[in-house]
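Two entries, shown back to back:
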Amino acid sequence: MPSYAIEDVIPVVDPTAYVHPTAVLIGDVIVGADCYVGPAACLRGDFGRIVLQRGANVQDTCVIHGFPGHDTVVGENGHIGHGAVLHSCTVQRDALVGMNAVVMDEAVVGEQAIVAACAFVRAGMQVPPRTLVAGLPAKVVRELSPEEMAWKQTGTSTYHDLTRRSLRSLREVSPLSEIEENRPVLAAPRVQPLIAARRA
């Protein structure tokens, strides 16, 4: 992975974490145990510190940055969806930030809360625990059901599994020119979108 020191501050990655080779870590970035950082994610700790606590995942093309003297923290088992942007904020334990959502300065996403895809969490907003927020700007929509919180936990567990699978087997290769006979099947856990699970 491209990893850069600035002013002799070097990123830290726990050996049990997986950081994709195309992700970029700069400066004061701390990636904790069992974390996953996806392709093309950018964690720029050149102003403020960035901390991913145990089991957090930051998916592909996410951007994390912050102001000088302000930490940006993703708490234990925090789940940051594809393309999300976090800036000088805190995402607490077991919370989820949806795809392409933005969480701004000094906002706090409470434990087990969900920020909907494409939502804009304004600076200083306090998202209550176990609630769903959505919109531009984000507003509290309702409390989350036990089913929704369990679905989030299952999704995060699949990223814990992906961390282990990636450490064990992900490698750069040249693509094949045609589909081989008896093509292998991925060993990924069977997880459905929430809408599909409800239909079933």
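entry 2 starts here
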Amino acid sequence: MAVTVYSKPACVQCTATTRALQQRGILFDVVDLTEDDDAMQQVQDLGYRQAPVVIAGEEHWSGFRPDKISMLS
């Protein structure tokens, strides 16, 4: 399953999310929302207004969600 983390610089929740994914050995891509207008539009179209936004297959969520991350491993 492809996992993508849509992030922003200096985002504490973004860092916590990517660290938790790394600790569980989950491969993921990071997209910087400040550098990719299409990605920003995509997450806004999903209804999100804060980073990080994680898309994992059909699942997606915003913020640091250890409960959701643990379900991926």
